[in-house]
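Checked the freezer inventory, then went back to the computational side. Two predictions to log before the end of the day. The first one is the construct we discussed on Monday; recording sequence and tokens without edits.
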Amino acid sequence: MVFQSPRGTADILPQDQPQWRFVEQAARRMAYRFGYDEITTPIFEDTDLFSRGIGSSTDILEKETYTFPDRGGDSMTLRPEGTAPVCRAYLQHGMNNLPQPVKLFYIVPNFRYERPQSGRYRAFNQFGIEVFGEQDAYIDAEVIELAWKYLEALGLKDLSLTINSIGDPSCRPKYIEHLKDYYHPHIANLCADCNRRINTNPLRLLDCKNDPCQELIESAPKSIEMLCPSCDKHWNSLVSNLSNIGLKHTVENRLVRGLDYYTKTVFEISPPDDGRMSVIVGGGRYDGLLEELGGSPTPGIGFGMGIERVIENLRRQKISLNQQNEQKIMVAHIGNEAKLEAIKLASLIRSNGGTSLVAPSRGLRSQLKYAAHIKATEVVIIGDDEIESGLFPVRNLANSEQKSFRKEEIINMFTQNQ
């Protein structure tokens, strides 16, 4: 039997690692530039954290979580999303006592039992942002700007930003009643999921991707037309702030997001042509979530971004990443004494901060072929004559130029820029 990776998962092979490093490092740089600190939470949490935080009627909790009893009989769930665990950490570690707002980011693996498709995996990696303790809409615009500028820095083109407001507990119930009144005469024409959602999670009616429901969605009541004065003021401030920093956007009345905790602002950033099925970034405000998890009333906002989906779009747009070419030195050897000298030289290069390895024990021609295979940038060649003279040839594999240097010069050459 030949084992395969589980369905909905993918190996990140050595040739893919530079692109992943570039994307993750760029995410960290952008988050630090905006004043965010990194946090990492456990891969699994108490199941109740997600049922209370995400909402028991969401697709994630109903269909997609990896939930299991541990050996002590407690129900645990592999992390399906990043917000609820970071909220738990914020409360558990007393971050509510710090000067507010508290601004955090994370790059973590998540797990959902979804139907695998392009850009959607059961084990996936997410770059996320969470901000606690600020209710002013300027922070909503900042979070959106961070996501946009990160994707822009990677080189992605023709992205679109859509925004909406779904109100809060003071005005949303009235809107939901209007929505249900609109849908009830059409129940017979709804898909099975929407027949269930009309009673369990009516806002998700607007998020349905099934063709029979699309025409109804187009004419459905609009949440921004039924906002209370407070939510309306917040909405107008967000729109003004986005315009002030030059972020073009479209109001999408169907945009509700898939989790129960969202309030007021919701937003998505999508690539061209693929629409909402290939959203790169999704997020919004969740002003009641920390209170739901046992904390005091605390405003919050954030986003989640699938790194696999970012990389897929970089490849689709054929964007070559501006990665700094790292030197990788292979030390080739001819003879036993030369091999000992090669081992010593490679170790000295590494000790001084460079990247080096010893060639495998085979003929010189085969060693040079191996150097090309592993994408070494230079090869140092050591034989008996080189040991006697103290001068070691260094061959540049990009242009085949070869010059000889003393050991100390080679160490300086391959470590001074590291």
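The second is the one RB wanted added to the comparison set:
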Amino acid sequence: MQLADLHGRRVAVWGTGREGVAAIDAIAPVGPAELVAVMDRETYAAKPWTGRLAELAPLHTGPAALDVLLRSDVVVRSPVIGETHPWVVRLRERGVPITSGTALWMAEHAASTIGVTGSKGKSTTTNLISHLLTAVDHPNVMGGNIGVPVLDLPPAQRYVLELSMYQCADLTDSPDVAVLTSLAPEHLDWAGGEPEYYRHKLNLVEHGPRWVAYNAQDDRLSAELAARPGLPLLPANTASVPGAEPAFQVTADPDGTRQVRLGDQPLFSRTALPLLGRHNEGNLCVALTALRAVGVDCFAERDRLAAALATLPALEHRLTPIEDPSGITFVDDSLSTIPQSAIHAIEAYAGRPLTVIVGGEDRGVDYAPLRNFLAEQEVVATLIGIPDSGPRILDVVKDLHTITTLTADDLHEAVRLGRERTPAGGVVLLSPAAPSYGRFDNYAHRSRVFRQAIQDTAE
């Protein structure tokens, strides 16, 4: 379904955040018979629905808005509205088509799009792909979950999009190159369960992508893709298979120097990549695989690619160091919403005295992987748990002899405790392993509170 297909139809846009506003602005010009906005409950992201927006699409709120949805020909939902929402269940039973702004946009732009998703690593990989493409004279526009809603993107030769599971779920067209970084249980409340989450996430590859670039080191991802035979797969982070195209990977020379390689050909030193952690080596290899999929000769361009990494724009709220006069390094990893992302953050700083602030919205995620990592690596750290899931995380790791656990009533208190417990030269890492919603508007709001607490607790 394309935007033009909404001409003459009764269309309801469900959600009044930035995605909802973008949908209204895009749909109104195509001439729907009726265009309305629906908000079932107040949310932090809701925009004031007055003036031009109210004229384009009158707003219906509360329980009565369900009737508006049920009499619509098409419902365009915002990402936060999940499959388990009782109104979605009613709409499915009634046979009312549900789509999204991302799906409408992708139907017209799939052939010029690289779409990136994954339970972790998708923001970094999207950023890498866009930046490296620009460096080798492949202009592009980056957007989606990482910034500008797709319906607000300007015309471009190529698009590089970060796509959340929410945005993948309603797609009926795959991007030209689908990029998969990882797969781990997340957003189970939205999807309705772990298998459903994987199905919605991997809907990105179900509609004819030309290539699927993926991280072959992720066992769960590899298994899910193997269960979908016939996909045009391009693995990264794996040894090259005889007879197949060589893969990108990072391996060590005999002297211990790590090199980025294409098959057995060295491209450039790992030191060219300024991002910490082995996981970011993997993200780089997946990004290079995506470049190769759109025709970039990464071996011929290796010098320009290496030079471009030095100017890679930093992602806010992803392992962002904040130096402090006390000698403590505070690290903002507010984008961490699952145990696996916190594991990578801890791994990056485990060589220094370490305090980790964990906890956020409790979606029932299994924290055993975090415990197993801390136990196997014998990480020495203090974990400070904040509401709502913090106490549950601490309960999972409390028997580990290398881990000290503390609780805090809020993020401000956690930062204060972190200052008290962490010596100069150490790290206080905010890597919550949980979403921000409930206590904060979003991950950016959580980050602002963290930074303000650092200032407030400084001597």
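For RB: The longest helix spans residues 278-293. The longest strand covers residues 34-39. Let me know if you want it refolded.
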